[in-house]
Design a protein that fits this description.
There is one protein chain. This protein is mainly α. Helices cover 79% and strands 0% of the residues. It contains seven helices and no strands. The longest helix is centred in the middle third of the chain and has 30 residues. The chain is elongated.
Length: 176
């Protein structure tokens, strides 16, 4: 049996998963859910379901129903990479061009949180802490951080999902 690359089929699945995550993000923004709302955990479920679908779809459509743990993880990784890249680009576009007030809101909330945790903080300390926070609240840093965190979570999910999605071809071992 010839070795087939997982990248092409997984990239297509990654595009679908990335779009699904963007649609979910837009819904949460439009319905004005708080950033730390428990509703954000639904995105993890979307991610897990999308990765499982991508791996199983690759296994069944391109590998005749059989896939090793490594092959399953590879398909999940490529799917996650493309989906994370798409959502990272979306985050940049959203923060930079669509909801330009978002960073201001994040900085305001950070200031309130700092004052709540340390009410004795001087104005100089607060300004210094906020200037540091402002560096990390830029659209490019938020996009890169989102890409990396999404990819890390996806890799962990792919490692777990691959356990359940693998299906070894026992006939190959019996013929030897």
């Amino acid at each position: 049996m010839e070795k087939k690359s997982a990248f092409g089929p997984s990239a297509i699945s990654g595009v679908y998963l990335g779009v699904a995550l963007i649609v979910f993000s837009l819904i949460t923004f439009l319905l004005d859910f708080e950033y730390d709302s428990p509703i954000k955990y639904i995105s993890y479920a979307i991610l897990a379901i999308g990765l499982y679908w991508a791996i199983v779809s690759y296994r069944d459509k391109h590998l005749g129903g059989f896939i090793s743990y490594k092959g399953a993880f590879t398909a999940g990784f490529y799917t996650a990479l493309i989906a994370s890249l798409i959502t990272g680009i979306f985050t940049f576009i959203y923060v930079e061009y669509i909801d330009t007030a978002l960073i201001g809101q994040v900085l305001e909330q950070a200031e309130l949180d700092m004052l709540e945790r340390s009410p004795d903080m001087s104005d100089e300390q607060l300004d210094q802490a906020l200037s540091f926070t402002e560096i990390f609240a830029s659209p490019i840093v938020l996009s890169i951080a989102g890409f990396i965190s999404n990819l890390v979570v996806s890799i962990i999910l792919s490692l777990i999902i691959s356990i359940f999605a693998k299906r070894e071809n026992k006939e190959v071992f019996e013929q030897k």
